[in-house]
Amino acid sequence: MADIDPDLDSDPGLSGLLNEEVDWRFLGAPTSGSVRVADLGAQGWSLLDGDLMLPCAVLKRDMIEHNRRWMRAFLKATGTKISPHGKTTMAPQLFERQLADGAWGMTAATPAHVRIYSHFGVERILLANQLVGKRNIAEVFALLRALPELDFYALVDSVEGVEMLASMVGRHPIGRPLQLLVECGLAGGRTGARSAKEAFAVARAVAASDGLALRGVEGFEGAIRGSRTDAPVDKVESLMELMLEVGAVAKDEGWFAPGKPLLTAGGSAFFDIVAKILAGDTAPKGFEVVLRAGCYISHDSGFYTDLLAEMAGRSGPILPHGTLQPALEVWAAVQSLPEPGLAILTLGKRDAPFDVRLPQPVAQFRAGMTRPQATPKAWAVDRLDDQHCYMKIDEGADLRLGDLVGFGVSHPCGAFDRWPLLFEVDRHYNVVGGIRTYF
Prior knowledge:
The protein has 439 residues and is α/β, with parallel strands linked by helices. It is built from twelve helices and 20 strands. Helices cover 30% and strands 23% of the residues. A hairpin with a 5-residue loop joins strand 19 and strand 20. The two termini are 26 Å apart.
């Protein structure tokens, strides 16, 4: 494995991002020359005045600010910290806001994410995945050698994985121990040791290996929702109890390296249960409890809205007043009204996620209106082609060629990755900035 010398001085982080030129290569941007990202808010552009090409993705700044306040209040009330999963947005400008809110660090899904985060100045990164693959390991090790301030963590769920990483560190020293968390999982789920006995063996192996440091216990409860189990809450609680058992034994046995050990679980569906069990009155003391929800900052108009309603039903007393608000919308224009009850719009699979649910029309605007108005509840997207949206409407609906329609989305993780640039807008849909993504 050849050593890598990363060029850490080119295009320095957020200053380089803000100096990037936005031009005809970016979806939604007008072709009137080029504008620095930093200057997008000074152009006087308005979505409703037709200054942006359609379709176009926007982030509503006031909703983002509300969601940031809501999560800060939740963390304070529960005594937990957060390492937001950056894969949701892959937007360093939003990372900066989350870190400014007091985030413990940022969570990554792949070594490529780790490289991107470190480029933009994130100094504490939790790779919520196993570190495998020759080139992946080489890239991460190079960053650790080049950036002594980088506080990096990865997961391991098998003794074989421990032995592999110990061997790699032995042959390619990084100047400090590689910090690892034992990953716990459940049968039929994703990665993670399936029993306390298996997790104990992994923890013991990490503690006994030169060049490795055991720093905590991890689990991902979001996969339980994905498995469509009939009793997701029971399974989430079982996973949390497994993590507590492993953490308690590891602490009693002295397997953890110096420093406060972590108990951390990811996901945006059950972070209330994670907080109540891992940081509750009956939880063992002396652990740092870190949540890893990533979707809260933008929220959505469907899937996560419903999940938050379920959360309010079971955990209302610990939730802040109000609720998270959908900040992300994709806007399109009516291009055809070919038959009664059907509108075709300039939006398709390339523009909005459809893996969980289809986009949902939420607002309509026509020149001459003072503000967008809510769409009738009967309007609904029937299907998407690559660049066309089939929207069912009432026969005789007040909808005309050229009208603008704003759509909410389900599963923001599948929305941000379609847009290299999202326009940040105020409550009147005036452009106040731009958010770059790096997928």
